[in-house]
Amino acid sequence: MKQLLLVFIGGGLGSVLRFIIGKHLNSPETGIPYGTFAANIIGSFIIGIVLGLALKHNTLSNNTVLFIAVGFCGGFTTFSAFAYEIHVMLKSGDFVSFAIYTIASFIIGFLAVFLGLYLVK
Predict the structure, then answer these.
(1) Which residue intervals of 1-121 are DSSP H helices?
(2) DSSP classification of residue 60
(3) Which site in 4, 45, 62, 119 is 20 to 30 Å from 52, CA atoms measured?
(4) What letter does residue 30 receive in the DSSP assignment?
């Protein structure tokens, strides 16, 4: 029960922070969702650091990993918003933004995870 509560609280905090970032960074003028992009990259970096610390140094408890990696990062990053935003880009015919946003999200997201893991080596 404690673990469920940790994931629940972490997820709520992550979701609220993502909402705030999206509210301030998503650009209705260009249609490019900078807030979602930032949240996904930052979340990828955080999960890389957290899991790297947990695996390599065994410095984080299982509850801390659940709270941050599963809860916070799970609520903070969002594949569903990403999927919707690329749908909107495709539907509007903005293929350049679609390609840049999609490729950059995957590549930079993966690199952020690897960087987080590398930094805790």
Answers:
(1) 2-25, 34-52, 62-65, 73-76, 79-92, 95-119
(2) S
(3) 4
(4) T
Query: Residue range 49-56: average pLDDT?
Result: 88
24, amino acid identity: H
The 10s digit of each residue's pLDDT in 81-104 is: 788 889 989 999 999 999 999 999
The strand pairing partners of 33, in sequence order, are 26
User: Any residues with CB less than 8 A from the CB of 84 and at least 6 apart, and which?
Assistant: none
- Non-local (6+) Cβ contacts of 18 within 8 A are 35, 36, 39, 75, 76, 77, 78, 81
Question: Distance between CA atoms of 103 and 109, rounded to whole angstroms?
Answer: 10
18 and 82 Cβ atoms separated by less than 8 Å: no
- What average pLDDT is seen over the chain? 91
pTM for the whole structure? 0.82
